[in-house]
Design brief:
Length: 322
Amino acid sequence: MSDRSGSTNPDALREALRRAAREALAGGAELVLGWGPGPDPATLAPLFAASAEECAALDFGPGAVRNLAGYLRGLAGRKVAVCVKGCDSRSVVQLLSEGLLRREELILIGLPCAGVLGRDGLPADGPAQPERDAPEGWPSVPDALLDARCLRCRFPNPVLADVTIGPERTPREPEGGPHADLDAFLAQPVMERFRHWERELGRCLRCYACRNACPLCVCRDHCLAETRRPGWLSQSSSVREKLLFQVIHAVHTAGRCTECGECQRACPVGIPLLTMKRVLAREAEALFGHVAGTDPAQVPPLLTFRAEEPTIPDHGTGEGDR
Ligand code: SF4
Ligand code: SF4
């Protein structure tokens, strides 16, 4: 089903969103996961609506930062509707492609997105709240206030949705390409980069907020950071243990990570974790042509294998051999 709202007036879009949510409940969903009023006018907090009355508080805009796909595994087995931005929809698609969610249990309400607020939110001396009365589309804020990942977003429109509310957005094409900052980082000598991570991860608290926020980190109670059999990690707060934990998380999400940024956003000490994840996501795309979370029918590359991988020199044959 694809039912794009005819009007692009913000109030009409809000009403279309709330109507879609009520229809989802009437159609058998137990809950609608969306965003509603937050602690301040700029912030939208996750809202679980279970009745038509509760749907009246649903809203969308640059304050809708949280990726709601992170709640879906905990609701498996129940039919739910979930509001998804473009990046959030990739998390859902990735979980579907791994058989961790069931499509028939989901109603996806897609919301084309102009970007969400960065970690600092709105400046104290800036606009009091996003442009709620913009003439068309969902409210937005200037680029300077956006999260950095939104400035290079290739998927502002949901890649999978049952209903889409709002005008389609144009993907970003940042100067120098979406990976210019990664190229600059990787151009540094390897020891420079190692020292960078020693410095950054030296601040890690081992609180595991990054792991808990990740929609794709699904081992939960069996996480090797906590299990003692096998004892991969100790309780030591040495940089080595912290680095090893992050490397393991990065490898577990390699070829699966959709670069949603929830890990980095959740980190209370602001460690730039997304850099590590983006490097591996780029490698997966270069090696396997795989962009995580874009095709529910595609098996992630590290969850399968071919007898011959033409793009991996050691094992390939033909054109990819070097
Ligand atoms: S590793 Fe980070 S960026 Fe990647 S899917 Fe998990 S939370 Fe999102
Ligand atoms: S959220 Fe930050 S401080 Fe907590 S474990 Fe992850 S990297 Fe360390």
